[in-house]
Predict the structure of Putative membrane glycoprotein lig-1.
Amino acid sequence: AARVATLGKGSEEHRTRLAGDCIVDRDCPESCVCEGTIVDCSRKSLREIPSDLPTFTTELRLNDNHITKVRNSGIFKKLPKLIKLDLRNNAIADIEDNAFLGAEQLADLLLMENKLRQVRPKMFSGLSSLRTLMLRSNQLSFIANDTFADLTTVRLLSLYDNKIRCLAQSAFERLTSLRTLNLLGNPLHCGCHLRWLADWLRGGDKVTGKPRCQSPVALQDVALEDVPSSQLEHCSDADEGCGFDEHCPRGCSCLGHAVHCSRQRLQQLPTNIQATTTELYLDVNDIAAIPMEINMLKEVTRIDLSNNQISILPNNIFANLSKLSTLILSYNKLQCIQGDSFIGLKSLRILSLHGNDVSLIPEGTFRDLQSITHIALGANPLYCDCTLRWLSDWIKKDYIEPGIARCSEPRSMKDKLVLTAPSNHFVCVDKPEPDVLAKCDACYTFPCQNGASCRPVPLRDYECDCPPGFHGRNCQHPVDACYGSPCENHGTCKVLEEGRFSCHCPVGFQGDRCETNKDDCYKNKCDNNATCVDAVDGYSCICKPGFVGTYCEKPINFCSKEFSPCKNGATCKDHKGHLTCHCAVGFTGSNCSTNVDDCVEHACLNGASCLDGINGYSCLCPRGFSGKLCELAPMVSMLYPRTSPCQQHDCQHGACFQPSGVSDYVCKCFPGFTGKRCETVSSLNFREDSYLEYPSLQTKPMANITLKLATRQQHGVIAYHGDTHHLAVELFQGRIRVSYDVGNYPVSNMFSFETLPDGDYHTVSILLLKKNVTLSVDGGVSRSIVNEGPREYLQVAAPLYIGGLPQEVASVALKHWHLRNASSFLGCMKELFINNKPMDVGNANKQHRVSPGCAEFDDPQPCKSHLCKRGKCLPVDRYNYECSCRSGWSGPFCDQAPTCQKEQYRDHLEDAGCRSQKKVKMAACIGSCGTHCCRAHKTKRRSVKMVCPLGRTYTKHMEVVRKCGCSRKC
């Protein structure tokens, strides 16, 4: 349908129109092509969005470039008219928060085929008019419940072909305007975390196709909505990680490339910190050791590990962090810094070791810190003997320590500042006390017993070399009869005499070596034929169906809130052996989980789409129509004179149009309709459980079925005609499968060489000639099979089904192996011929869940049959256009001619209380010029004698209109 003309032919017209507002638009960027308000910067190898775009840009094409990031640069605040933004096929890995602020009119945002790994709510801040969001073919793996929180106007959301395993509960709850959601092509993990999604899919029809599970293995390729709820009730270890954003550690918050994990009581570093992290905040936790895996964060520039429990820095712990500029390790329990702890930190500027328990620092520890400007060593008990003299000299060289670090020992250096104490005062007189040496050498704690010798090992650990006759970590155990821990199940070994021992068993075990678990099921209390399972010092009862309790002593009330399977307000009835659900109005199914399709017998008129509701439906009217059932036609009287034939037109599913100079009218059909009066359905959209039913196929002397279809699905019934014998045509793993049985066992099968699920239209032809069947796709090489045997013709009394089957027919077809998969065809069908006769798909015996028009698969050209008479057609989206009228012309279709003309009259000329001596012939420009102005194109100057009240006279020059016309300048 056309819309009111608002756009001009080129940017010059927009500049002229708003010249009175002192607005000067920018020129078209040098690397782009501009036509009207469309700016095409596609395929220009751009790495950033241009900053010098014209203000009146309504469509910006940036597809097929090398853009890696959408920055919050304020560019969209300069594009208040932007309606469509195409960023397809770039390398976008991040969108900065609030990057789109200012684009309040943006309706279509295309981000397909990029590298987005996560989506944050603030990425789309400011998009208050967004209707279409395409995120297909990115790398998203998780959808949080606030990911799309602010996108309340979005109607179409595509998440097709990502890496989504998990979706948080209510992930789509705030998308209140959502009509279509595509989740296909994602490796869904169908565990307990997706139970909500399965229920949501079963209760609505907004989702394209059937999203399928990829894990666990038992559910692979099973449609999520077909998985029984009982299989999604219990969480397994594989479900871990599905309750949170996999790109942000649990309990942490992530903003851009900064990870904030402060005050989370962490005892170790999270395992899923992204390699692209630049800032890592782990302060105020309980982390005791830094793992070597931290070296994977090669992009990190700042790490805060203050207020933890870290006691030692191993060698090479930060060796790969060449970009690290700030490292905060203050207020830990650091006692030992090793000689290569800070190796590789060539970019480090700030190092804080304040508030630890460090006494000794090996010489050369800071040798790689080439960029250091500040080091904090205060509140450490430094031992300032000759081994620390190097540190004093190093600090004094560049004054990188502010004079806070003080010596604690020996007594002669106590409380002296490392920065100001003379270097020759750092001398070795006595050996440090063992408790000082033990901070880096655990052997100074003297752990080894019974005369064993101690060897220090890395990470401030030790090993004891035991003398003969002893063993254990500290050589504390003699080698006797209990050597090797002969007692099982944590029994305690006691030496009795030379070579003998006894085992003292823990509760629940018995035997010489505590090897036997006592049978606690002896005299158990399990009730109602429950099974007793023995445990250690106890048992448990496995209940028979219908009972619960510790001992299975309580019968289950299956209609209780906890156990009732009845959904959607249904009433549960317990029959002491089974139960039934009495559904509320609008629902059906064994547990009332299925919303009754109220659109099956809908009464929507004029090509309106039916939207199913709860115990009712609503009609989505084509442009111009209104009313509860879209029964009210467009108000054509505003556009046409009352004598127009369109005043009483009979266009059934289209708009009436009267060409100029013709007394009759033509009908411009809505999508999905054709015919002189748009009375015939030309294409149908099939969804889940859709089908058409036609009379039985006449197969003598021959029969054929030809149709054109488009789909992106791998499976689906195309045509089926059968009872005992059959013809079945289906999509199976993307190819056409034909199964043919005229009654000659065994059945004959063949598959097409071509694959069809590419979204394009394909013509499929089936020819039946007696026991022969021939398949042709797109007019290519035909394939034939023969169901050899005595019977000649296929004779079936049942109806012919197109696009799907009723449930009971599908069950029989599957049972007899007529079909491999009985799911309905999902896509579009048009141009259906049966026995060479074109079929009006709208006049089938029965239509179930089908609707006219195939917007998803059509390649619309809204200007192909436009109605613009005196103007240019400009597409505004996939289906709509508007007319940019020539100068003077107006109306939605630029069919209202200008009425601007000169009107003459005679009157006195007035001027500041004076008037002309006599009436003067004058003229005015009156009439319509559409969006332009009716004004004088030609004038002539003349002189008029003016007379004032006191007798004064003078001559006034005036411009007299000679010719009028339409002008852009008003």
